[in-house]
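Technical note accompanying the year-one report. For the benefit of new consortium partners, we illustrate the data format agreed upon in the data management plan: each record pairs a sequence with a structure-token string. No post-processing was applied to the example shown here.
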Amino acid sequence: MNAPSTAGMLRALPIEHRQRLMHLAREVSFPQGIRLFHEGGRADRFWIIRTGTIALDMHVPGRRAAVIETLGPDELVGWSWLFAPHSWHLGAETTTPVRAYEFDAMAVRAMCHDNPELGLAVAEWVGGIVAHRLRSARTRLLDLYAPYGSGGHR
């Protein structure tokens, strides 16, 4: 099951909202192996991947970090910026060279506050991604650490 795409969210917004949001975008590039953020760090930005892949991981005490999901083009990297206390719930590292749009979280939150219609659309989109990623994390951790894996038992 694929997460809702960023392209889908941008298409779902009326053109004036989409233009306002993309006006805040800054094009960035990262080489392979760069840590974008660590679990527990301050979530002050987010990205929409244009090219490349980024692995989301979760700290597992006494073990190597578990990769929960690998994200690719048109996918959102980072949702913790939208919800207080604005700290990362997962970690992220580039697995290939990446080009992305980067957004300043404070500027986007202010825009959403000033325009409740835009804010609702962004919150619904990000909320859907959060739900998907929580299901992915559960399944991945069960596959890695449960005696019989996820086995489809939920």
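Partners are asked to follow this layout when depositing records. Residues 38 and 91 are 4 Å apart (CA to CA).
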